[in-house]
Each structure stands twice: as structure tokens, then as C-alpha cells.
Amino acid sequence: MIPGSNRRLSARRVLRRPATVVMPGGAQRPVKTWDIGVDGMSLVSAKPIPPGTRCTVRMELPDGDALRAVDVPVKTLYCSLLGPEGVKVGAVYMALDEDTERLIQRFMA
Fold first, then answer.
1. What DSSP state is assigned to residue 94?
2. What is the residue-wise DSSP string for 51-74?
């Protein structure tokens, strides 16, 4: 475990954008991204997404002066109440395709 209250393995960068979570079975839920890193991301959802849920986050990532649509497979790790904004959901990436991985790394640089 990493000392202190932040147990993340890598740094995160703020990214507050609308996104959609595609749940198992195809149900979709609007969310907002909170932050993103090379190993995972956080979202804000109106309702919790149970830890262990494997789903896909459809979002746009900055790529220079443009935005690129990506589908990011994730597994949720935790939910914590933020208050009126909703629930913060932490997630780690599952098998990212090479293009999405490169795009995230460029955003983090």
C-alpha cells in the first residue's frame, strides 16, 4: 500500500466531461468523468454502480485541439457519496486497445 490516503498507483488528471456507462446487458447510464489516469478513472453517477461491475465508459478525450470518441472497458472498484452531485465511482481499466491507451497517455503527458 502506498503511504497516505491516496492508494492510486499513478497520478490522475482532472477531466470533467459528459460520458455514458454501458452496463452489462446494454442498459446505458449518463455520467460525468471526474478524473483520469493511465490505470483508471473516476466518474460521477446519479446512482451507485456496484463494485466489481464490468462495463464500458463511452466518452470523448481531448486529442490536441480536437475531441476523440473512445469506448473504455472498466471494472468498478468503489462508490462514495459526493452529495447532491451524486456518487463518485472509481474504476480500473480492463484490456485497452492500443489507440485508446496511447490517447490516454498523451492526455496525461
1. -
2. TT-EEEEEEEEEETTEEEEEEEEE
C-alpha cell of residue 70 = 473512445
Report d(CA 30, CA 32) in Å as an integer: 7
Specify the CATH number for the domain of residue 27: 2.40.10.220
Range of the domain at 81: 12-108
Element (H, E) at 102: helix 98-108
Mean pLDDT for each 10-residue chunk of the chain (109 residues)? Answer: 50 94 96 96 97 98 94 97 94 95 94
The helices-and-strands tally (H runs, E runs) of the chain is 1, 7
Task: Give CA–CA dist 11/105, Å, rounded.
Answer: 11
Taking the whole predicted model, whether its pTM rises above 0.90 is answered as no
The x, y and z cell numbers of residue 29, run together, are 447510464
